[in-house]
Specification:
Helices cover 39% and strands 14% of the residues. The protein has 16 helices and 14 strands. The protein has helices at residues 4-8, 47-50, 63-69, 86-99, 111-114, 124-139, 155-158, 167-183, 196-205, 216-240, 262-285, 293-296, 304-308, 355-368, 396-414, 457-470; strands at 40-44, 104-108, 143-149, 189-194, 245-251, 255-257, 314-318, 323-325, 347-348, 351-352, 374-378, 419-425, 444-447, 452-455. The termini are far apart. Mean pLDDT is 88; it is low at 1-31 and 334-346. Bound molecules: 5-hydroxymethyl-3,4-dihydroxypiperidine (IFM). 5-hydroxymethyl-3,4-dihydroxypiperidine binds at residues 46, 49, 195, 318, 378, 425, 432, 441.
Length: 477
């Protein structure tokens, strides 16, 4: 069996041609893009990865708190008890994103902070924190894009089976209903889930993520219940916030077989069906992909697919790279992730730099699902530590990754895709799940000893890009 990180991430077969070694980093992008002033540039974060204060003001444990503090699941034994301490430093973080000229912020709320007890009352201190966040955002002219569920299920629901229990779908809908009743008038964009496929597969199939469940049955049932909870939540949101724009966020990653073997082709087809198709087909088409339909049959009751299928206003696509897959009969879940270990110059967390894959992902959604409005809800690059001693925080690799992905995003717009926004993952270095605090995705460095924030080169570059687009004149011909 391969090591965990190798199993999850993939190396491309060869260095990709789109990023020449001598591409001048600092002068490249801001003047060459044509997204225009109406395009929504933003930053993305999630509650558990940045907030800390895990036991403050009434918050109780979520599945990640348990996962971090039991067993050896997280690299270096890290946890998110403090992480960026955003709970106490939120105004500074909002000031940083506003100072960049960024006008949109996608964040999530912590379910165990808002509802710390099973069937218990709302936690007023938890709600007050997110009210203060909204005050800061509105004060600085930044639009909130709220994601209701970014993987931090309350432990009291996990104790009842979590996402493998159908009841959790109804609990999510109840949560969405209550949160949208409370914040409805203050938030214009609502996303239900973040990356159902990742949460189901890594958390319930492979056990690399919380809650650490394993096996195909857990994987498939969790994914169906996430899809069901998402559909029910969209219905609740439509009723409560009819004026808002409602959507959800999916990880869309084109899947490629690592070799030309028939086994690899089959493994890639199954993973594509489970990762991409089993999330997007129920939502847009009201069915599961034929290749995996039988796997979902035991959990999918009559009427479920009509609930899963919802008309949304926009889809968030999280894109990092393609998935390259190799079949291994030893592997328990029918599919196996392999890496071919070819060197790739530009890589983050062993993720290949494949900006053309972003184009492929966007065009796939555009073509297959009836040209929905899309925004890139996450795209980002991890390094172990940015900057050379004494040089300031230079993060050329990240900058080139973002620049190249944006170039292919522009290409998808030119090809007719209805793409209205791009959100960088992430504002701050933060808790990167099973990889702990080591992998840094931020455009702003966080010194985790002092919690000092320092913008990196990419922050200034992104700011320049956003400002240049805001100033662009749109000439209609
Ligand atoms: O940090 C994660 C985020 O929570 C979900 N999408 C991928 C990011 C980077 O791995």
């Amino acid at each position: 069996m391969m090591k965990r990180r190798e199993a999850m991430r993939f190396l491309a077969a060869a260095p990709l041609p789109f990023v020449p070694d001598d591409w001048p980093i600092t002068q490249r992008a801001p003047t060459s893009y044509a997204f225009g002033p109406d395009f929504n540039f933003g930053f993305s974060t999630s509650a558990y990865q940045i907030e800390g204060a895990v036991h403050e003001d009434g918050r109780t444990d979520g599945i990640w708190d348990i996962f971090c503090h039991t067993g050896h699941h997280i690299r270096n034994g890290d946890n998110a008890d403090i992480t960026c301490d955003h709970y106490h430093r939120m105004p500074e973080d909002v000031a940083l994103l506003a100072a960049a000229g960024v006008r949109n912020y996608r964040y999530s709320v912590s379910w165990p902070r808002l509802y710390p007890e099973m069937n218990g009352p709302a936690n007023s201190k938890g709600f007050a924190f997110y009210d203060r966040l909204l005050d800061e955002l509105h004060d600085k002219g930044v639009s909130p894009w709220l994601c209701l569920y970014h993987w931090d299920l309350p432990q009291y629901l996990q104790a009842r089976g979590g996402w493998t229990n159908r009841d959790t779908a109804y609990r999510l809908a109840e949560f969405s209903d209550k949160v949208s009743r409370y914040f409805g008038s203050r938030i214009g964009h609502w996303m239900v889930l973040n990356e159902a496929a990742v949460h189901a597969y890594l958390g319930h199939g492979l056990g690399f993520h919380a809650p650490g469940m394993t096996g195909k049955d857990n994987w498939v049932s969790a994914l169906h219940h996430l899809n069901l909870g998402q559909g029910l939540s969209v219905q609740a949101l439509r009723a409560n916030v009819p004026q808002a724009r409602i959507g959800t966020v999916a990880s869309v990653e084109p899947v490629r077989p690592s070799t030309k073997s028939a086994d690899d082709a089959q493994a890639a087809a199954v993973l594509d069906a489970m990762w991409n198709g089993a999330v997007l087909d129920p939502l847009f088409l009201g069915e599961y992909p034929a290749l995996v339909r039988d796997d979902f049959a035991p959990y999918c009751r009559s009427g479920d697919l009509a609930v899963c299928r919802q008309k949304i206003d926009l889809l968030g696509i999280n894109y990092y790279s393609r998935l390259h897959i190799r079949y291994d009969p030893k592997y328990a879940l029918d599919v196996f992730f392999g890496s071919n270990n070819d060197p790739v110059k530009y890589k983050a967390l062993n993720v290949p730099m494949e900006p053309d894959g972003l184009y492929e992902a966007v065009m796939h959604v555009h073509d297959r699902y009836g040209r929905p409005e899309i925004f890139i809800s996450e795209n980002g690059f991890a390094t172990v530590k940015d900057g050379k001693p004494g040089s300031g925080l230079e993060d050329d690799g990240r900058l080139e990754y973002l620049a190249a992905n944006l170039a292919f995003l522009q290409k998808s717009r030119e090809a007719g895709a209805n793409v209205s926004g791009y959100f960088v993952w992430s504002l701050l270095d933060n808790f990167e799940w099973d990889a702990g605090m080591k992998y840094r995705f931020g455009l702003v460095d966080v010194d985790f000893a002092t919690l000092k924030r320092t913008p990196k080169q990419s922050y200034y570059w992104y700011s320049a890009l956003v400002r240049s687009q805001a100033k662009m004149q749109v000439v209609k011909v």
